Amino acid sequence: MICGRACVGKKTKILVNKIRPGEIAVIFHKDIDELAASFLLEKKAKAVINFETSCSGKYYNKGPETLIKAKIPLIDVISPYQGEIKEGDIVKIKDNGDIFVNDKFFSKGKFWDLDSLNKCKNLAKQNIDKHLLNFIENTIDYIEKNRDIIYSNYSVPDVNVDIKGKHVLIVIRGHEYKEDLSILRSYIEEMKPVLIGVDGGADAILEFGYTPDIIIGDMDSISDEGLLCGAEIIVHAYPDGKAPGLERIKNLGVKYSIFSVTGTSEDAAFLLAFEKGADLIVAVGTHTSMLDFLEKGRKGMASTLLVRLKMGHILIDAKGVNKLYKRKEENISIILPLVLTGIIPIFILFLNSPILSHVFKLIYLKLKLVLMMF
Would you say the C-alpha torsion 143, 146, 152, 156 has a positive or negative sign? Predict the structure, then answer.
């Protein structure tokens, strides 16, 4: 039996900012993505109770597999259930899947294991072509609605940070963002790029010992500490003026400006850097594939496609760069023994050759005389 205090969150990305080690995460997350699972793992959740289907078979999401392989129990609530689970409730999950809240029966649950995930994976393989076609069609349909991006029919807010002619590093808290950011440390130290954090990406920058110059987004996955770090705050609003993160910013009492533009917050960050004259834009943790967007609940990627076309050659996507670096290390580990294999016989020959040994002694004596003069 599993027992622990409940930490409840309608949005997993918000819940991971408050959950404590040993608590049971209670989420409402259909098709748990790998990034959310890695955060729950990092926060040492004792178990995860999901009121949605953790793996529907629409596409193969790696979140459930990440949790199960880390031996974190994952259980989906089976309707009907009695009442609700509240923050701080004591939850018990029995081995048969029965869920009790404050010692009262709440609902039956379905434990996920690798066998059930394999069935989901096989279903996803059958569905992938259909969803890919729908994704492409939705992207094409929405391109017309996002054409303002190409014509720059939006007002870019003024910023105090000088971006013109500089490198800009934009950090999004996407898959493997930590690994990629680690590889870019030497680049950051040498080039001193303008650092822009997109929502939780600002916390990532702070975690690595740097301070973001600008924070942009709808402010739903960044910590209060991040918002109060001294960076310029730009709230992403949609063309209709709706800005989901504005109320939180006002409550914190920090200065802000608004950038009203269609698309995602990371699209807005790219457009800001581009319009302010960045010489090079380097992106970490971006969302670029169909799987990335399906995990975010988006049916297409029209705005992102148009933004990337507009950026052209000045945009470099550093997503996955850590894999290239690892491969480089693997190559070195293979080459180094080969080099040593060639050097060792030469060294042995050197030691056993009277002429070379004599030369070595002469060099040694000269060095000794020079050192004695100081």
Answer: negative
How far apart are the C-alpha atoms of 28 and 247, rounded to whole Å? Answer: 23
What phi and psi, each to the nearest 5 degrees, are found at residue 119?
A: -65, -40
Please give the helix or strand (H or E) that residue 8 lies within, else none: strand 2-9
Amino acid at 323: K
Domain boundaries, the chain: 2-118, 147-319, 335-372
**Can you say whether the dihedral through the CA atoms of 13, 204, 64, 96 is positive or negative?**
negative
Tally Cβ neighbours within 10 Å of residue 277.
12
Q: Which CATH number fits domain 2-118: 3.30.70.120, 3.30.420.40, 3.20.19.10, 3.30.460.80?
A: 3.20.19.10
> How are strands ordered across the β-sheet holding 194-198?
257-260, 232-237, 214-217, 194-198, 167-172, 280-284, 315-317
Own/partner pairs, 334-339, CB within 8 angstroms, 24+ separation: none
Q: Do strands 257-260 and 214-217 pair parallel, antiparallel, or not at all (unpaired)?
A: unpaired
Q: How does pLDDT run across 80-139, given as a tens digit for each residue?
A: 888 899 999 999 999 999 999 999 999 999 999 999 999 988 888 887 777 777 777 777
Rounded to two decimals, the pTM is 0.71
Can you name the residues that pair with 7 across neighbouring β-strands? 25
